[in-house]
Amino acid sequence: MSEETYTLQGGGRAAQKLKGSPSGDDGYRGVWVFIEQVEGRAAPVSWELLGAGRELADSLEVELAGVILGSGVENLSDEAFAYGADVVYLADHPLLRDYRTLLYAKVLINLVRKYRPEVLLMGATSLGRDLAGVVATSLETGLTADCTELKIDTEKRLLEQTRPAFGGNVMATILCPKRRPQMATVRPRVFPLPPRRSGRKGRLIAESFELKEEEARVRILETIKEKGRSLYLDQAEVIVAGGRGVGSKENFELLKELAETIGGTLGASRAAVEAGWVPPEYQVGQTGTIVRPKVYFAIGISGAIQHLVGMQNSDIIVAINKDPEAPIFRIATYGIVGDLLEIVPALTSEFRRRLSRSTSEGISNA
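Above: the chain's sequence. Below: its structure in token form.
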């Protein structure tokens, strides 16, 4: 896989006419992480980005800041400090209780223009992607989506934003030398969760804003919470994923049985999803969900780069494939060459037997 470097120029006539639009270095300092929250609960990707942001801030020799928007969410500042933030910018307002694009964008844009960070990181969630695009457009700065690596060119103070491109065949490193802040979104589980240092303190800067209901332009009438899946892929500790080699929708039932037996979550490659064997929300990979479980079963998955990008940081990878030359074996912790229709039921049976024995022994000891 090749590597290419691209430059986001930004600016242009529209930018020249926009008063207060950040240009070049221009005194911008600091690394910011947007702390995404829903109903007062922070998205784990926010803490993961604080870990990545800490390294960037140390390279630039600047402060790391968390930005929290919401209503009654001041308590999240303690968590932000615990995960590495030196400063927290807090905008607490009743109209920010639920996410609405224009209100959140107004607040974040004004904070950026007032405090002038040179880097702004956000999670590549549905909320983060929506907000990041509006903010970057309003500030007329560059935005790189779905980054898998972030580094600093300390001499030029440039954020090197790396992400897969052209179907995953190229890893593109994108630079934004002429506009600030340099913005990037990162999917959940790309970076590890940093150590939590309970009791760590920092500076809390509370900002007040005059917001009006009509500025939102939308009203939230009802919130419908997803039912059925109790555990999302990006939070799963054990994933049993299948690819084209599984062969059929019916054969996926074998994988589902294994996942249920060991308390795991079902996953799939893009090929399996496109074949209609499983719904799109189970897709792992560059165009699906990036995961970092403790154990990842790759069953009937050849190991295309699009899929590897989404699961290669799993703690343990168990690959099952009848092709001994399948690329997935190059990154696997354990590899089993053979017919999955024989291997998977045998694994399920053995796991069930051992789990049953452990449960029986626990009851006897009690």
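The chain has two domains: 2-216, 233-365.
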